[in-house]
Amino acid sequence: MSTYVVGDIHGCYEEFIDLVEKIEKQDASAHFILVGDIIDRGPDSIKMLRWAMDSCNKPDGKFELILGNHEYEKISLLERYFSFCEDGLANSMEEFCRQRQDDSYHFGRTLAEEHISDEEIKQYCRFFRLLPIYKELDVTIQGKRQHFIIVHGGLRIDFVNEDETFKKSTLSRKGLLFEARKDGHNTIEKIVWDRCSVALRRTIVIHGHTPTCDDPNIEGRIGFGQKEVNVDGGCVFRSKAYPNANLAALRLEDLEEFYRYDPGPITEVNKEKKDQLLKRKRRPSKKEREAWMKEAEQWLGLV
Ligand SMILES: [Mn+2]
Questions:
Q1: Cα(96) to centroid(ligand 1), Å
Q2: Full-model pTM
């Protein structure tokens, strides 16, 4: 059984199903991890969401979904809707949307147009709240154990322990509720929003969130970095402006790439980085590590 990490789907349900079928044709026991942002922007957000609620994070473990910023934002939007209803300020999603300018990516309007019942909306809210924030796993690559952490946006250096396992204490939930930490940082927001990479020795961080289709060095393919891999090919942006935008999946066992649409050839820069990652020079030089630490500190605003 191999594990495939799928990039941001953004309502591109048809493309997603096509990609899954393509992969399953050659690997019937494939296991999929979706990096979040399955809704908004694209044509089939509700269809995609209903599919995810039926299929993801079930005991069989076939499909896993982690939280993206688009799912995260909807929690507060939907809760506002229900408090409006309770306070008698709105009687329907349509009414609520008429009064609110902050309908994130017209999600509320989409719910109203598709006549989604309040009961179902409550289930969406609960589903979003229960999504895992990260996924951590070890797989064997060429006989060696490789540690992976998968998040939607980025991973900060202070979110991992010395041994590079995810620092669970950075997440605080009270029951199903997300909470800001005592120091005011909301870790979940950082993980789903921030675009940052960290200097880890033995871990490959995989994320989505930043479409590669407008990066001339990547062009809608999976983007390989020194320390992380970006699987967001920007499928929903596929157009004349972004003809190479794609839906991508990365197989963890050998870093093999899978795409919904035939991708262009891999660029020299991207290939070089992928080769380096495959060689798995796990211990960066002292100089490299210092440079990365400095980068992370600057990023955190410590210097
Ligand atoms: Mn995102």
A1: 25
A2: 0.89
DSSP state for residue 245 in the 8-state scheme: -
Give 12 Cα–ligand 1 centroid separation in angstroms: 14
Kindly give the distance from the C-alpha atom of residue 5 to the centroid of ligand 1, in angstroms, as a whole number. 15
CATH of domain 3-68+131-300: 3.60.21
pLDDT at residue 174, as a whole number: 46
The residue ranges of every structural domain in the chain are 3-68+131-300, 72-129
* Predicted local distance difference test score (pLDDT) of residue 202: 86
CB atoms within 10 A of CB 35: 28
| CA 153–ligand 1 middle distance (angstroms) | 6
Distance from the alpha carbon of residue 100 to the mean position of ligand 1, in angstroms:
23
Q: What is the pLDDT of residues 225-272, one digit of tens each?
A: 877 999 999 999 999 999 999 999 999 999 999 999 999 899 999 999
In the predicted model, residues of the chain with pLDDT beneath 50 are 174-177
Distance 286 CA to ligand 1 centre (A): 33
Across the beta sheet with 63-65, what order do the strands follow? 63-65, 31-34, 3-6, 248-251, 256-259
pLDDT of the residue at 301: 64
Report how far residue 163's alpha carbon sits from residue 206's, in angstroms, rounded to the nearest whole number: 18
Give me 196's structure tokens: 């940052």
**Centroid of chain to Cα 183:** 25
Alpha-carbon torsion 243, 234, 124, 105, what sign? negative
Q: Which residues have a Cβ under 8 Å from the Cβ of 186 and sit 6 or more positions away?
A: 178, 179, 180
- Centre of ligand 1 to C-alpha 129, Å, is 16
State residue 176's pLDDT score.
Answer: 40
Beta bridge mates, 147: 138, 203
The alpha carbon of 194 and the centre of ligand 1 are apart by a number of angstroms equal to 9
Q: Which helix (H) or strand (E) holds 207?
A: strand 203-207
